[in-house]
Design goal:
- The protein is of the alpha+beta class and about 450 residues long.
- Helices cover about 55% and strands about 20% of the residues.
- It has a five-stranded antiparallel β-sheet with strand order 2-1-5-4-3.
- A hairpin with a 4-residue loop joins strand 1 and strand 2.
- The longest helix has about 40 residues, at about 30-70.
- The protein is elongated.
- Bound molecules: adenosine-5'-triphosphate and magnesium ion.
- Adenosine-5'-triphosphate binds near residues 387, 401, 408 and 418.
Length: about 450
């Protein structure tokens, strides 16, 4: 049978009644009276203790555990033994604690995952609340703008973000409640960084703006590419315009009557022929470049006999060298084979040798050497010509770049030769290096793996 507080009370009542009866009979004996009172007190004390242990302490333990849960300690549990309703209460509190602990664990994992994503994103991120206080900045943002998270978190955005454009972006995001995109330039002592910032509003469940995320992109590379593209179009147009104007002018003069003079006719036709040739070469070079620049371009692979290839192109070079009394020497290791695209490797030899002869004054020397080294084929073209200054050296592979524009144009050059060479080297997974000293000469070294890695296409 279950012992309830009523039963305990009843027991106590009977006990007092019985002891009261005894008291009335033995009241004369003080000693017995005191003894009975002590016994009565002890019994009462034990009963109170029992009540405390059975009901009050378990409830106090339960309250203490709930307090701990309220303070965020989800590991708190009630361990005190209890029975009946109090036991049920304990079990429910422990169940609630387990659920809370599981939920907080899940939440912690989710927020950690979110923070990892936010921190590792390639764009800078800033979270601003509706009052303008910054709550979060990610690692990329700090690497872009400097400082630590503490320099931004808890501050108003306009106190710590320097650019007016950013302020405007935040204000317009809140004002129009939609994404706002702007760009700005950051200038430090040495360089310029082009930035783009996008403000995106954050809405709560009642569709009210609760804040904004600012996303920062570094668009310097894109700007550079855009400038290169614009430069390229301008250069191509300029290079095309010169021969076309010339052809147009001379043919018009001929048609206007100059063709009747055989001497003038011959001279003008020669110019027209030369200019049209120049146009043809330019267009050919542009086509070669655009073909080589295609991402998925894989050249058709041939087994190239280097000796043979050099012998094929030599007459062209020798003729040009002879016109300037330049001594052309070759030093080619016998029996060398190279896996690559023969048309392109041929073009590479022509472009390098042509440069060596073009930029070497009369009586100079041009040497071509090809050898094998650790399964690589090394091609070296050296001259003792005008050379290139250190500052210009890194630019000679750019399209249309010419050190001395007037001189190159006189030699018929368009400034695409080395850009093409560089691309050919890249598609063959090789390396190119250029050494030069002004008025001393230039050496271009190309290293190709004997067997290229790209797939064969036929
Ligand atoms: N061997 C060299 N010695 C000195 N300067 C050179 C040498 N090779 C290249 N250059 C410089 O580099 C520039 C770029 O060379 P590149 O071959 O790309 O163009 P180019 O010779 O002017 O024209 P082309 O497109 O007809 O080859 C040249 O204009 C020249 O100023
Ligand atoms: Mg050239």
């Amino acid at each position: 049978m279950k012992k309830t507080p009523i039963m305990y009370g009843l027991g106590l009542f009977i006990l007092l009644a019985v002891t009261g009866g005894i008291l009335s009979t033995v009241v004369e004996n003080y000693f017995i009276l005191v003894l009975v009172l002590i016994v009565q007190f002890i019994i009462l004390f034990l009963v109170v203790l029992h009540f405390l242990d059975r009901y009050t302490t378990p409830v106090q333990k339960a309250i203490h555990t709930v307090d701990q849960l309220l303070n965020g300690n989800f590991r708190a549990r009630v361990h005190h033994p209890a029975s009946g309703l109090v036991n049920e209460l304990h079990m429910n509190i422990n169940k609630l604690a387990r659920n809370l602990s599981e939920l907080s664990f899940q939440e912690q994992i989710q927020s950690e995952q979110l923070l990892t994503v936010v921190d590792n994103t390639v764009s800078g991120l800033v979270l601003v609340d509706e009052k303008g206080y910054i709550h979060l900045v990610n690692r990329k943002f700090l690497s872009m703008f400097g400082g630590t998270a503490e320099d931004y978190r808890g501050f108003l955005y306009y106190e710590v973000l320097e650019s007016e454009v950013i302020h405007e972006t935040v204000q317009n995001t809140f004002l129009y409640e939609q994404n706002v995109k702007n760009s700005f330039v950051r200038q430090n002592e040495t360089d310029k960084t082009y930035m783009e910032v996008v403000g995106a509003p954050i809405f709560n469940e009642r569709k009210m703006v609760k804040g904004a995320v600012l996303v920062f992109y570094d668009i310097t590379e894109l700007k550079k590419l855009e400038r290169m593209r614009k430069d390229f179009v301008a250069n191509v147009s300029h290079e095309l315009k010169t021969p076309i104007t010339s052809i147009n002018g001379f043919s018009e003069t001929l048609l206007d009557g100059a063709m009747n003079d055989p001497e003038v006719l011959e001279e003008f036709l020669q110019i027209i022929f030369k200019e049209s040739k120049r146009l043809q070469l330019l267009i050919q070079d542009l086509l070669t470049l655009s073909m080589l620049e295609k991402d998925d371009f894989i050249p058709v692979k041939n087994n190239i006999d280097i000796d043979q290839l050099v012998m094929d192109i030599e007459p062209m070079i020798e003729r040009k060298a002879a016109q300037k009394n330049i001594t052309y020497t070759k030093n080619i290791q016998a029996g060398l084979l190279l896996e690559g695209n023969s048309a392109q490797i041929r073009q590479l030899f022509i472009n390098l040798l042509d440069n060596a002869v073009s930029y070497t004054p009369e009586q100079g020397d041009v040497t071509l050497s090809v050898s094998e080294e650790n399964d690589d084929v090394i091609i070296r073209v050296a001259d003792n010509g005008i050379g290139i200054s250190k500052s210009q050296l890194e630019r000679v592979f750019e399209r249309f770049y010419r050190v001395d524009k007037a001189r190159s144009r006189n030699t018929g050059g368009t400034g695409l030769g080395l850009a093409i060479v560089k691309h050919i080297v890249e598609v063959h997974k090789g390396q190119i290096n250029i050494d030069s000293e002004e008025q001393k000469g230039t050496t271009v070294t190309v290293r190709f793996p004997k067997r290229t890695v790209y797939d064969v296409q036929n």
